Amino acid sequence: MKTILPAFLMLMLSLSTNAQIKRYTYYFDASLAPAQKEKAFIYGKGVKQDSIVWVDFFLIRNDQKIFSASYTDSSLNILHGKSIDYYSNSQIQQVKRYVHNVQDGLAQQWDTAGRQTDSIVYKNGTVAFKKKSRYFNGNIIINETITDSIRNTLEDISYDTTGRKTRAIMFSGNTGIEKIYHPDGTVTNGDSLYTREGKDAGFPGGQKAWAAYLTRALDASRPIRAGAPEGQYKVVVQFIIDKEGYLSNIKALTNNGYGMEDEALRVIRSSGKWSPAMQYGRLVKAYRKQPITFAITKR
Hints:
This protein is mainly beta. The protein is 14% helix and 48% strand.
């Protein structure tokens, strides 16, 4: 009995643990509102164990996993724990952590090459620390920006394509110092800076004007004429906005086909002059990734 009893208890514990597991299936439309199965664009597969429900979300058209998240219950109203977004190739795009719908803890983001671009520490919904990295080719970092909200400091460090430091901007409060690093090893002071304020490059008039332009200029029926299946498709176009607001190096980063990328490129090229970016009170060249969504429905 002394040898049988522990094995029996382990079996009972295993059966008890398995009995706590519940499984759920969810169906949503393109905006993630609940929908009937026959009208859904996205479905979710949920597993509840103890007090947590973990749900994987998939596109119905191709079973592509788009994100996963942890909730307090099967109603999916309260995020609690880890949330993961995926690229179309199933690589992880970003990981966030929540405590009762409030971001808390480490959040991380990776680009399509698997390189970490953002690392952010949240405390009760507020950014306490942030590190952002930008790359040239391979794993060569050309810029790192580190913001410490607790100490109220900022470091913005640039490198050339060989990894040599070329410039560093260091802020304490709203007072900044620029240092220039020369190839011969010498360092000189650049501009004194008195503001951290910046502005992203964007379409003149903001998002409302951009939405109006897309409605007017985008031929949304082009993919339908090309035979695209029903579903929601996101096209991403990358381009550079120079200090005067002119666009260059316009290219598509996605390959949905059915004329979607060609149409998005046409619309971007025809969008005219944009509002340039500003950094530390100065106009700067900016890189932009612009998503454009095609929702294909056939009646």
